[in-house]
């Protein structure tokens, strides 16, 4: 056999040592945010009046005028230059996933034959990147007006290497969003408005409600050399073939185990750089699968948390390479072992505290808690199909529904205490809810929720949307995804539920207030209880505390009217349901045109991903697997022939029984691979003729993707019988255990 890249790479991986990471002289609190133009830097580098105006912009969404932008840019520029910065870029989140940036240097002609460095408010605030090759679903054809990027002053600028990075939205000249950030900001505004109004029933002083996000990022690390010898990992982010390793995660010995040294060095490096960039990373540990890990920061305002996650993912890839690893963010890089998700811990809080924290100090606070829990459930129930669409992608589809991750049905786990509370509100005698020690008044006892629940116990790991004491944990989000997609859908759905709630409560107050005149009763609370009781009943189908992996749940969910569809391109249709379009447009988050355009992009992206996988699988089958299988088969054939030359034929064949069987098996399997690859190519040709992106994606899902499993089954069997020294691709045991 020719020299085997796999063996060479395994040998090199074996010799790799952890890289020394220079520990900063300072403590983390001192270098935290060192590379961010945060409030502290603004205070130092901006004139007092500009600083105060900036605080108003950041805290209250005040406008930013041109002269102020110039003053801010000047301060930023000064700070940036002191840090060796020569370039700046608008940084945005196009629909391709990932982030985009185009760097410009500060230099300009000075008119006297030399150069000066310049950075004006105009350059800070708005730019027109030539972004015609970003997907826009047809909103911005190359003939129409171009898109522009505009600074998001609520997410501070930061420095990477020699470049000042400016977080921006990316929109078309006619105002349509071409990115994730613009609709996210609109969704956050909608939930702020709706939730603040509901809070006013309880506390008129509440000024704003913030949506919080704490993400937990799972990922795999693979040795870089081994990765390079796997064209499927390189081009698709996952292994399209590979037989199970004899040992994988069955011993449960990786989860929370001691972190391997080379990985620990990587993590340390990544954490230092993250903290310098203001990402408050806090947690790190081994995950369930071998070579799988997790990192999590402290939660932040959702917009900032999303930016930080995007930044973290790109940082992670960079730092991994420095340590001789590749970070795999794909949701399912390896068949047969756990995939990677990104739990999105979500909550709402006012300027005075978290809204989903129970129990409160007063009955009013407990009622408010119940309102926010129930209206969250109302949003999730009404739009469960849409929420599923918001987390789905060609890659995350591998994870959903498999026996390890949330099932492909959205439901919510509340736990015993909160369920009992809701049952109590629903069923209690009215007088019971409104009598304290014989006196009239609101009584809302909530059974004490033990701190333990908030920490770790009483968790239902199978629930895609679980209440965990002071937040909901949306677990279905994919590891590779931009969290914004899920956060747009969730926050908008909750905003809609709260808006409807408020409307009905107000109507109810008008009806009942006469009845409570001259009594100690507050008609507002009576109205709230009435509407809450209706909603507790209505959203019951979404509440499920049982095992989300079981088959019974699939049937039960269907009976309850929940969305049980599993085909990714079909699920995307939920974005265009009348209910979704109405919700997004009424709340000013996305117009029908935007939704349609974005769906075009989703379908197109889906098709392209499957198309690339199909090509890679075809190539690998024909160039790597079949030639190696055939060569090994020839070797066996020669052996059989030689046996016949020295023994009588019958005796020889008896002695060659195993080899003869293998020769036949290889012939059958390679023939099957060849036939299927042929069919796959034909199916692709048929699908490619379909013009409509929606139908094309469905064709790719229905007629092409199914071959992946059946082809790999043959290849994985070949891997087991072919001489290990000929096998060209690093095996699962090497990818998963070399570190
Ligand atoms: P676990 O793996 O046990 O779920 P982690 O500690 O890994 O928990 O992550 C929990 C995440 O939830 C962290 O990002 C944390 O800051 C975040 N979190 C905690 N409280 C809230 C809250 N009220 N709202 C949003 N996120 C929260
Ligand atoms: Mg969690």
Structural summary, described in words:
The chain has 739 residues and is an alpha+beta fold. The protein has 3 domains: 32-179, Ubiquitin-like (UB roll) (Roll); 189-590, Creatine Kinase, Chain A, domain 2; 605-735, Four Helix Bundle (Hemerythrin (Met), subunit A) (Up-down Bundle), CATH 1.20.120.1560. Strands 9, 10, 11, 12, 13, 14, 15, 16, 19 and 20 form a 10-stranded mixed beta sheet that branches. Strands 1, 2, 5, 6, 7 and 8 form a 6-stranded mixed beta sheet that branches. A hairpin with a 7-residue loop joins strand 1 (87-92) and strand 2. Helix 10 (261-276) packs across helix 11 (302-322). The longest helix has 55 residues, at 592-646. The radius of gyration is 29 Å and the shape is globular. The relative contact order is 0.11. The model has no long low-confidence stretch (mean pLDDT 92).
Quick take:
Strands 9, 10, 11, 12, 13, 14, 15, 16, 19 and 20 form a 10-stranded mixed β-sheet that branches.
């Amino acid at each position: 056999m020719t020299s085997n890249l796999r063996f060479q790479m395994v040998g090199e991986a074996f010799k790799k040592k952890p890289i020394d990471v220079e520990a900063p002289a300072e403590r983390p609190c001192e270098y935290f945010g060192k590379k961010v133009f945060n409030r502290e830097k603004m205070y130092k580098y901006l004139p007092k009046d500009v600083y105060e105006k900036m605080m108003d912009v950041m805290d209250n969404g005040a406008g930013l005028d041109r002269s102020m932008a110039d003053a801010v840019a000047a301060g930023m520029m000064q700070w940036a230059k002191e840090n060796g910065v020569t370039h700046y870029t608008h940084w945005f989140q196009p629909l391709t996933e990932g982030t985009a940036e185009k760097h410009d240097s500060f230099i300009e002609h000075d008119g006297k034959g030399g150069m000066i460095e310049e950075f004006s408010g105009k350059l800070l605030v708005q730019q027109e990147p030539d972004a015609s090759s970003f997907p826009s679903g047809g909103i911005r054809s190359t003939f129409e007006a171009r898109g522009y990027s505009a600074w998001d002053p609520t997410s501070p600028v930061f420095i990477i290497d020699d470049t000042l990075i400016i977080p921006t939205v990316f929109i078309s000249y006619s105002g349509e969003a071409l990115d994730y950030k613009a609709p996210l900001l609109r969704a956050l505004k909608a939930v702020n408005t709706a939730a603040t109004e509901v809070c006013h029933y309880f506390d008129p002083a509440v000024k704003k409600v913030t949506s919080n996000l704490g993400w937990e990022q799972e990922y795999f690390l693979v040795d870089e050399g081994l990765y390079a010898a796997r064209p499927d990992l390189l081009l698709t982010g996952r292994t399209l073939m590979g037989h199970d390793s004899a040992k994988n995660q069955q011993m449960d010995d990786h989860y929370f185990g001691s972190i391997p040294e080379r990985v620990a060095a990587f993590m340390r490096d990544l954490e230092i750089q993250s903290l310098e960039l203001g990402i408050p990373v806090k947690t790190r540990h081994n995950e369930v699968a071998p070579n799988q890990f997790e990192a999590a920061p402290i939660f932040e305002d959702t917009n900032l948390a999303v930016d930080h996650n995007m930044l973290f993912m790109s940082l992670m890839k960079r730092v991994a390479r420095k340590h001789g690893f590749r970070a795999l963010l794909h949701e399912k890089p390896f068949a047969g072992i756990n995939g990677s998700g990104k739990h999105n811990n979500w909550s709402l809080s006012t300027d005075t505290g978290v809204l989903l924290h129970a129990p409160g100090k007063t009955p009013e606070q407990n009622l408010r808690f119940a309102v926010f829990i129930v209206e969250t459930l109302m949003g999730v129930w009404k739009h469960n199909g849409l929420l599923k669409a918001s987390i789905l992608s060609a890659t995350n589809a591998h994870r959903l529904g498999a026996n390890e991750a949330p099932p492909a049905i959205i439901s919510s786990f509340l736990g015993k205490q909160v369920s009992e509370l809701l049952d109590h509100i629903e069923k209690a005698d009215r007088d019971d809810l409104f009598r304290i020690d014989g006196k009239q008044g609101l009584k809302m006892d909530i059974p004490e929720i033990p701190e333990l629940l908030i920490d770790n116990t009483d968790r239902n790991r199978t629930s895609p949307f679980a209440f965990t004491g002071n937040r909901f944990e949306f677990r279905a989000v994919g590891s590779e995804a931009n969290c914004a997609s899920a956060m747009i859908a969730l926050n908008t759905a909750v905003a809609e539920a709260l808006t409807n709630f408020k409307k009905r409560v107000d109507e109810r107050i008008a009806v009942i207030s006469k009845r409570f005149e001259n009594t100690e009763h507050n008609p507002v609370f009576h109205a709230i209880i009435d509407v809450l009781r209706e909603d507790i009943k209505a959203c019951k189908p979404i509440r499920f505390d049982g095992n989300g992996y079981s088959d019974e749940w699939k049937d039960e969910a269907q009976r309850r009217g929940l969305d049980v569809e599993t085909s990714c391109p079909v699920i995307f249709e939920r974005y265009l349901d009348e209910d979704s379009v109405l919700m997004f447009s009424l709340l000013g988050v996305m117009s029908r045109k935007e939704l349609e355009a974005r769906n075009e992009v989703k379908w197109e992206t889906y098709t392209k991903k499957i198309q690339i996988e199909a090509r890679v699988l075809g190539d690998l089958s024909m160039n790597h697997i079949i030639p190696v299988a055939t060569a090994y088969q020839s070797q066996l054939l020669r052996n059989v022939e030689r046996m016949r030359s020295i023994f009588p034929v019958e005796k020889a064949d008896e002695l060659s029984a195993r080899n003869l069987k293998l020769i036949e098996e290889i012939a059958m399997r390679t023939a099957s691979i060849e036939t299927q690859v042929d069919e796959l190519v034909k199916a692709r040709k048929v699908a490619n003729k379909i013009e409509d992106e929606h139908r094309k994606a469905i064709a790719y899902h229905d007629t092409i993707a199914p071959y992946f499993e059946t082809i790999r089954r043959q290849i994985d069997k070949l891997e087991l019988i072919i001489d290990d020294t000929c096998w060209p691709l690093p095996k699962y045991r090497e990818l998963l255990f070399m570190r």
